[in-house]
């Protein structure tokens, strides 16, 4: 994404796959971008619908990186969908 990177991970306590999104390092010194990232996770956590992901956790790593942990949904990436079906 534009503000962050998403990784496939395993939740330490739940012992299941999850997606971890972290803000790009270049935004860590931009308080408004960090607040925007935080609003994003808070808004997503409020959603309750079968077509949205569940948020498991969010916070800051020891190095100050802001992140959130969400449900992992296996499937095609946006890039793969566009390659197969066009824009």
Write structural notes for this entry.
This protein is α+β, with helices and mostly antiparallel strands. Helices cover 28% and strands 30% of the residues. It contains two helices and four strands. The protein has helices at 31-46, 78-85, and strands at residues 4-10, 17-23, 55-60, 66-71. The protein has a four-stranded antiparallel beta sheet, with helices on one face. Strand 3 (55-60) and strand 4 form a beta hairpin. The two termini are 17 Å apart. The model has no long low-confidence stretch (mean pLDDT 91).
How confident overall, as mean pLDDT?
91
Beginning-to-end CA distance, first to last residue: 17 Å
Contiguous helical run count: 2
* Strand order in space, largest sheet: 1-2-4-3
Write the layout of secondary structure elements.
Blueprint (H helix, E strand, L loop, with lengths): L3 E7 L6 E7 L7 H16 L8 E6 L5 E6 L6 H8 L2
Antiparallel strand pairs: 1-2, 2-4, 3-4
In short:
The protein is 28% helix and 30% strand. It is of the alpha+beta class and 87 residues long.
Name a few traits of the molecule.
87 residues; alpha+beta; four-stranded antiparallel β-sheet; 28% helix
């Amino acid at each position: 994404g534009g503000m962050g990177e998403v990784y496939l991970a395993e939740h330490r306590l739940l012992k299941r796959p999850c997606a971890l999104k972290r803000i790009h390092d270049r935004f860590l010194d931009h308080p408004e971008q960090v607040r925007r990232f935080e609003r994003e996770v808070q808004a997503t956590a409020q959603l309750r619908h079968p077509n949205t992901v569940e948020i498991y956790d969010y916070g800051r790593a020891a190095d100050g990186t802001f992140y959130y942990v969400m449900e992992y949904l296996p499937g095609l990436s946006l890039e793969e969908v566009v390659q197969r079906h066009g824009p």
